[in-house]
Amino acid sequence: MQRVDLRNLSCPEPVLRTKKLFDDPNVEAAEVLVDDEVSVRNLERLSKYLKASVSSKKTDKGFQVTLKRTLDPKVILSASEESPVKDGNHGAKSTTVVFLSKDTFGEGDEEFSRTLLNLFLQTLFETGQRPQAILMANSGVKLMAKSSAVLRVLQDFQKEGVEVAACGLCVDYYGLKEDIPVPQITNMFAICEYLTSAEKVLSP
After folding, report:
1. Is the C-alpha dihedral spanning 111, 113, 119, 122 positive or negative?
2. How does pLDDT run along the chain (204 residues), one tens digit per residue?
3. Residues forming a β-bridge with 52
4. Residue 66: which of 110, 134, 2, 114 has the closest Cα?
5. Full-model pTM
6. By C-alpha distance, which of 204, 193, 198, 203 is closest to 48?
7. Rounded-to-integer distance, Cα 68 and Cα 36, Å
């Protein structure tokens, strides 16, 4: 059992270092110390990519996450069912991902550009299109703030099974950690996985 202390590292370092650890095929299990629930959720996402079982517990030093490499599909399925946010990108045959790297639709008058983005999301939803995921980074994470005009349509997509998630580092930067539920905070590793495996990426 490998034991690593990844506290006090900014996102996505805990994920990247844990993945690097499991790049060694001789590593069967690892016990990882991280600071908060967001890091725990990120390692849970990584466990699906690694085909590893995962468990976690809170300690007086933070959170202890244990990952064990396994090929048992029942364990992998169980981990997936426990997660409120679907993973879903690995092995998908046909995928479309919406990537919002800003809180506007294109460039131009800011207020008008925000209205256009709202219109885009509303139209996408009304046409019945259901992308695999709607991912937000940089100022795009502001769309998930409690005061956001598009929060409702994002929630509608989520109710329809679409993963709606924001970059954790960006959430911290814009001071929105209190606004966005932990299960909807992701990391750059997971975002890269979605974008590189998607057949189509929409980024208005």
Report:
1. negative
2. 889 999 999 888 899 899 999 999 899 999 999 999 999 999 998 998 888 999 999 999 899 999 999 865 444 444 444 443 444 444 344 589 999 999 999 888 999 999 999 999 999 999 888 999 999 999 999 999 999 999 999 999 999 999 999 999 999 999 998 999 998 999 999 999 999 999 999 999
3. 69
4. 2
5. 0.74
6. 193
7. 20
